[in-house]
Amino acid sequence: MRIVESFLTRNPCYAAGRKITVKGLMLHSVGCPQPRASAFVRSWDSPAHGGSCVHGFIDGEDGTVYQTLPWNHRGWHCGSGNRGSGNNTHIGVEMCESACIRYTAGSNFTCLDVDAARAVAERTYRAAVGLFAMLCGKYGLDPLEDGVVISHREGCARGIASNHGDPEHLWGQLGMGYTMDGFRREVRAAMEGVASGVDGCMRIMGKAVATAGQMAAYVRARNPGVVQSVLDMIPLYLSEGEAEGVRGDIAFAQSCLETGNFTFSGSAVAPLQNNFCGMGVTGKGMRGNSFGTPLLGIRAQVQHLKAYASRKGLVKECVDPRFRYVERGCAEYVEWLGQKENPAGKGWAAGAGYGEKILAILEGILGMAGGEPSASGAGGWYRVRKSWADAGSQKGAFKELGNAKECADGNPGYLVFDWNGNVVYGKADGGGMTDAACPFMVWVWVADLNIREGAGTDTPRTGRYTGKGCFTIVQVKAGAGSDAGWGKLKSGAGWIALDFCEKI
Description:
Elements: E1 3-5, H1 12-16, E2 24-29, H2 37-44, E3 56-58, E4 65-67, E5 90-95, E6 101-105, E7 108-111, H3 114-139, E8 149-151, H4 152-157, H5 168-173, H6 180-191, H7 212-222, H8 228-244, H9 248-259, H10 294-309, H11 354-366, E9 368-369, E10 372-373, E11 382-385, E12 396-398, H12 401-409, E13 415-417, E14 423-425, E15 440-444, E16 450-452, E17 461-465, E18 469-477, E19 486-489, E20 495-497, E21 501-503
Parallel strand pairs: 1-4, 2-5, 2-8, 3-5
Antiparallel strand pairs: 3-4, 6-7, 9-10, 11-12, 11-13, 13-14, 15-18, 15-21, 16-17, 18-19, 19-20
Helix pairs in contact: 3-6, 7-8, 8-9, 8-10, 9-11
């Protein structure tokens, strides 16, 4: 999430300068076909724009948050109802909307390109989750408490806002499947490090990393008697996955789990069902769904994964008989396919650690080279944990060391281990890191943050301050007076304490 300070200093609301005690956050959408937040910033920054002023806009093209009022200023974003005004208690944030939308009457609209409009809505939704998680943390708010995180529509129903239907009207007419209840859960998950720690999770959507050769080598190694028909259908996982934007190697790893590496030993499904993922096995003794060909079975599996991982429509005709039963987009990551690990309690399977089991198989697949297990360590995974023995503390597993380092930097006290359990990066004492993944940007939320000549309060001040805004950090060091570490400014002006910053 990137935040750019663009205060509407010429707007009468800003000039009024009234402060509030922040008790909640209200989500809006702009109600017009304009995806660029900068357009609103320009037009609202005027003495003539005296009817409205919000705390921020979320850009529809890249998800950037443009902060237009100090967070604790009283905004003019929701009007009033029969029980007062949410302007007195809530921060108001607007999500921009796609240029493809054409409003007809009230909150009703037509759409020239539904996929493009959904992409904008998904982008602003994700940015809003991150922003609201940050603001809830900043003001000590629980997003699941009644009335804390609400929409403009919900504000109207509570009698503290004017009669608007946003943003639910947008999500509903685009068929996104988003709800405010789901939004609140995702904000809470982000605050708890589930969603905010997505760097440590593996997305289901994307391009496959493993090759067909690696997949074949893996299943041969674990099932020497694997029949040729199984090997022949491996490319289907990649082609069907590519068609829907789902990682076919993840689908294959799931099939290996569900079928016992295609031995079908202990599996709830039989080979002739062409069901390689246990689809429809919702209780003990059930045989699940059957499909006419392996192609259709794999296609249904890929479509079912897409139902969990994305809100985008299917590219091919739906052959998944259970597609309609899934809450779209409730499990973007492999780790969330298990109901016990899913922040919303959703997921593919009820068993504990379901997603981790799939990832363990995927790791084995990626460790295959030239048809044999890699002996060089190539394809090994770097794991971020408090200790090698404490697997439950793991934040993520990464193919790239740099990504693992970044995850450790964001979680003090965590270490990076190689595939053999050796520490390769980090400090266990929770102190500042000396080798952070730089450069990165931070948002400074205090107006008078001192810039020092070195990393620590024991070094001289430069006599300059950052002011509020975004800054690029090119180096991080531990030092006196800071628990989060000291960051070196890209400008060369000096060092700042990262305790007063939010990483973007």
